[in-house]
Structure formats: C-alpha cells, structure tokens
Amino acid sequence: MSGHPSRSVARLAAVQALYQMEVSSIGVEHVIREFCEHRFDRDVDGETLAAADEGFFADLVRGVVAGQAAIDTAIVKRLAEGWRLERLDATVRAILRAGAFELKSRPDVPTEVAINEYVEVAKSFFEGTEPGFVNGALDGVARDVRPG
User: Fold this and answer.
1) Domain annotation for the chain: domains and CATH numbers
2) Model pTM?
3) CB 112: neighbour CB atoms within 10 A?
C-alpha cells in the first residue's frame, strides 16, 4: 500500500463501514463511532493492527454518504452499457464508491495512489477479476473527474 499505512487502514475500514451500512441500514455517525471506539487500535490474535487515520476514515464515509447520488452517477457512467450499480457485489460497490469519492474530493491524493489503494482493498476481498474491474472503473472515473 502507499506510504501512509494509517490511510490504507482507513480506506479498508471505510469500505467495510460502507458495506455494513448498506447491509444493515445503520446510520453514518453510528458506524463511524462503532469503528473508532471498537475496531481501531485493537489486538487481533495477539497482534496490534496498524493505526487508522480516523479523521480520513470519517471523511471518506461521510463524504460517500453525502455525495452518493453524484458518486453513483460517476461510477455508472463507467460501467458496461446496460449494467446497473445494483448488479455489482455490495463490497465492490463500497470499494468503487469510496474510490470515486476520493478521486472527486481529495485532490491532495495523487490519482495513481488512490486507484492503487482501492485495487489493493479489492485484492484483500477478492481473488478473481474484481481488482482489475475496480482498476478499470476507477481509472475511468479519474479521467472524468480530474482534469489533465
């Protein structure tokens, strides 16, 4: 992942939080609080997880929720003709939404870094074609939302 491991952890957690919100219908502030209080900086099987950039995590989750209509429109524009976002796996949707939000709203993060980070997130969930799909979709979104 990138030179900011705490941001890499935040991105992975944001995808998990967005997925959790979609499948359980819990609210954005509840899920952010749950992650910050119960999931970050915890020991897992005797090993401490890398610290997350909690502010970056909260910004990603809140930003996706607040801008979801525009984010979904940007993603759908890059799907194959006739494909609807609902046809995608819920985890892939969460990855694409977080990635598209970051590309649209965080010019401080280089395009290549953002895309590569979400491809790595996809690899942590999938072994098939999904990481390549995420790469192609986010590359297209980046061309649409980032000039030059």
Assistant:
1) 5-145 (1.10.940.10)
2) 0.90
3) 11
